[in-house]
C-alpha cells in the first residue's frame, strides 16, 4: 500500500469526514440541491397525487422496492409512505370486492 492510501485509510479510521461534492458545481454538496417535484421529492409528490390518481402510489412503490432512494436518501420516507398507502388501498379494494361478491 502506498503512502497516500495509507494516510487516507488512517483518516477514515480516525473519524474524519470526507466532503461529498457535486461534479457540476464543486461548491454544492449532495444535499444542497432541491428535490424534484416542487422540492418535496417524488415519494411525497406521489403520495399527495395518489389521492386523485391511486396508481401513483403503485409507481412510487415500484421505485421504493427498486432502491431508487440510493440516489438520494431524502426520497426514502416519501417512497415508503406511498408504499404504505398502496398497501392500504389494495386491502380496501379487496375487502370491498369481497363484500360485493359475497
Automatic annotation (TrEMBL):
The chain crosses the membrane at residues 42-66, 78-101. The gene is LOC111274662. This is 60S ribosomal protein L18a-like protein. The keyword Transmembrane applies. It comes from Durio zibethinus (Durian). Keywords: Membrane, Transmembrane, Transmembrane helix.
Amino acid at each position: 500500500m502506498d503512502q497516500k492510501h495509507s494516510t487516507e485509510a488512517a483518516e477514515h479510521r480516525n473519524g474524519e469526514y470526507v466532503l461529498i461534492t457535486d461534479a457540476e458545481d464543486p461548491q454544492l454538496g449532495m444535499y444542497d440541491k432541491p428535490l424534484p417535484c416542487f422540492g418535496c421529492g417524488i415519494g411525497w409528490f406521489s403520495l399527495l397525487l395518489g389521492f386523485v390518481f391511486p396508481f401513483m402510489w403503485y409507481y412510487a412503490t415500484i421505485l421504493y422496492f427498486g432502491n431508487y432512494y440510493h440516489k438520494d436518501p431524502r426520497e426514502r420516507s416519501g417512497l415508503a409512505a406511498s408504499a404504505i398507502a398502496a398497501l392500504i388501498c389494495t386491502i380496501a379494494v379487496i375487502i370491498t370486492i369481497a363484500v360485493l361478491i359475497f
